[in-house]
User: What shape does this take?
Amino acid sequence: MFQWLDTEGAPLKHHIPGSTNYLPDLKIRGGSFDKGEPSTQPFPLNANFVSESILSEELRNEIHKRVVGQKKSIRAVSAELGVDMRRVAAVCRLVEMEKRWKQQGKPLALPYARAVHEMVPTTPLQDSRHQRQTPHESINDLPAHRLTNAQIFYPVSESRQFTRIEAGRVFSAAPARDHRIVTEEAANPSEAMSRITQNPSRIETVGKGAKEQPVLQPADVRIPHPHLVVHERQRIANPNEFQLVRKAYDARLREEEEIERDRKLIAQERRERQLSRVQPESSRFEFRIKDVVVSKETTGSDGRGARAPGRRYGVPSYDRKKGQIKIPTQVVV
Assistant: This one.
């Protein structure tokens, strides 16, 4: 190995800033490095493995500025910059932690961070406002739902409207809806989608007790950015009305954010009404008391339901008992 590092692998000892330091780069550096582009495959024998890009410092700071400084929602910033909402939230938390560490005088591993950004692919921030930002990753990925694993043969008459909503009801073993409602939703899918995304608590459920679950919704509703589907429909329907389509998209996004904010506020107020706070005098402790309803519906048939903890106490745990299944038997998405 050391002999290879002293001969053929010697160029890899010192990387070129802004370029990867992978083994396929040896051919480029040996002959026409200026003509070729740095490789994104670290392993020459595994062409399917590609090194993914990371956020550049400029793009990371721009995300933090838009969320914290400009008070934009995480959903809006994710759609504008092409970064997943979970990554946007993580960037905001990490930048805030970095600022707090600087105020506390803690050392930061800045040389290590600069070296990593110079040696791996990065997603840059577009300088021009008129130029569209290069997406960092897919922001509307949807994992496969466990209910769709089954293969179902479901006969449907030719005169019936059978959409993705109906397919989700079949997978959930829910009864079929009225033909008139299906026809109206098929005529205006954007409005039907908005009714579901703006009122998620009104989604129909099937099953009883611990097996109760909501009816499987179509992919247009379950993706992280359902408003982009409506925006694409309007863009295709009105190809020459870019400004009008953009205004409608911004208005729809603001409406979705306001409805989500009001829904969270109502849920918080409901939790506060159910909670009693007691703080004794000259005490730094506060007792929070919440009334619960202990019944078979809240505790489940085995007494281990999470909606009411009272009946769970005294039920033995079988975590260390032989013959018990201790690995997850299903994945709830």
About this structure: The CA atoms of residues 164 and 314 lie 45 Å apart. Residues 31-35 have pLDDT under 50 and may be disordered. Residues 144-223 form one domain. The chain is about 40% helix and 5% strand.
